[in-house]
Design brief:
Elements: E1 6-13, E2 19-27, E3 33-42, H1 45-57, H2 61-66, H3 68-93, E4 99-110, E5 115-119, H4 122-129, E6 132-135, H5 139-143, H6 153-166, E7 173-178, E8 181-187, E9 198-205, H7 208-217, H8 227-231, H9 236-245, H10 270-292, E10 298-302, H11 309-317, E11 325-328, H12 339-352, H13 360-363, E12 373-375
Parallel strand pairs: 1-4, 4-6, 7-10, 10-11
Antiparallel strand pairs: 1-2, 2-3, 4-5, 6-12, 7-8, 8-9
Length: 380
């Protein structure tokens, strides 16, 4: 007997703070998954700048209190923005949407102090859209001694298993998401619900350093296709100094963009800075894979960073002596821009069904954790 399937709308805003990725999905929360539509809505320049400015002020726990009023105001504005998206999709889709998976916008994350703040009011979004909303996905994991991230591995496992059913792939498989931060999920085999076949880590910066450098030096928001880096020259002295001073002892801790800074690039020209920062990012990603995997044959890549040709080419260079094949997930008819938004639709369904979304080997929590807060703030 098949499990009931739910239709969920996943809303994901990443660290680039440029807009919201939206995915409508159908799933039973376990074995079956269907993507229905993907959509992107960009923030206005004014809203985006407000978000970037406020995030830059939140550097420690006390700042959350200091800027509480600004955070509250901006959370309302963010929630209103998301409500417009939900109502627009609801009108276009016509059929029933059971759940909204509302990631919110990460403004501060410090896993060592068990603090993670995503701007987004689930109760208000439920009231405005007349839908059941699942949000605040990280808190229960943090309370269960987890890192609060990465949260998408259970979805990564599902899509890899579905890929395998259509076109056999050799396990173990790595699925790598290069967003603001790079995380990897390793799936040992295709046993659907066995948590022991699943592990995950945040391993390195992704786009965060590159994007910040571009924003500080141009009117652009990112390095399109890695073209700026391609035009620059790596400062080998600076690069070698960074590597010599690098001391990553453990990958057990989840990462935030504020764990990294650009101080090493001071004095470099814009283009040379792009090249050097991107190579540094590629090195850290490659090292993160090597330290956490030694037998996978394939690495499927999703996230915006997969489009940075300079970055991907240099990651591959670090694996010349290791038989690891890198493939964009588009090869398997999945859109790499929307894997994370699809994931949060899926996680909303799992939360609603009281199924775990994080495990000891994905977030270092003590035991499998059912995450997310369910809000139903309307009457029929």
């Amino acid at each position: 007997m098949k499990n009931k399937e739910f239709t969920a709308l996943g809303l994901m805003s990443g660290t680039s703070m440029d807009g919201v990725d939206v995915s409508l999905v159908k799933s039973d929360g376990e074995y079956r998954f269907q993507g229905i539509l993907n959509y992107y809505r960009q923030f206005s320049d004014d809203l985006r700048q407000k978000l970037i400015n406020l995030r830059s002020l939140i550097n420690e726990k006390n700042d959350l209190k200091k800027y509480a009023n600004q955070l509250k105001d901006l959370e309302r504005e963010i929630t209103l923005f998301h409500s417009e998206i939900v109502n627009d999709i609801s009108q276009r889709y016509k059929k029933k949407i059971d759940l909204i998976g509302f990631h919110g916008l990460t403004i501060f994350h410090d896993s060592t102090k068990k603090i993670s703040l995503q701007l987004g009011d689930g109760k208000l979004l439920s009231q405005l859209t007349k839908h059941i909303v699942v949000n605040d996905f990280r808190q229960k994991d943090l309370k269960n001694e987890g890192q609060g991230a990465p949260l998408t591995p259970v979805f990564h496992r599902l899509i890899c298993n579905l890929i395998n059913k259509k076109k056999k792939i050799q396990y173990p498989v790595i699925l790598m998401n290069i967003g603001g931060i790079t995380n990897i999920t390793k799936i040992k085999n295709n046993r659907d619900s066995n948590e022991k076949n699943l592990s995950a880590y945040d391993i390195a910066p992704g786009n965060c350093l590159i994007d910040e450098w571009v924003r500080k030096n141009t009117k652009q928001n990112f390095d399109y296709n890695g073209n700026f880096a391609e035009s620059g020259k790596v400062d080998q002295l600076v690069f070698n100094q960074i590597i010599d001073n690098l001391n990553i002892k453990s990958y057990e801790k989840s990462l935030d963009i504020k764990d990294f800074d650009l101080s090493f690039a001071r004095g470099l020209s814009f283009l040379d800075g792009c090249a050097t920062i991107t190579l540094f990012t590629a090195y850290l990603i490659a090292e993160g894979i090597k330290q956490n995997d030694n037998n996978s044959k394939i690495c499927l890549i999703c996230g915006g960073g997969r489009k940075n040709n300079f970055l991907i080419r240099n990651i591959k260079k670090y694996f010349k002596q290791k038989k690891l094949k890198f493939e964009n997930i588009e090869k398997y008819n999945l859109d790499g821009d929307f894997i994370e938004s699809q994931a949060f639709g899926f996680l909303a369904i799992r939360t609603f069904l009281k199924k775990p979304i994080s495990y000891p080997k994905t977030t270092r929590c003590k035991s499998p954790t059912i995450g997310g807060v369910i809000s139903k703030n309307f009457s029929k």
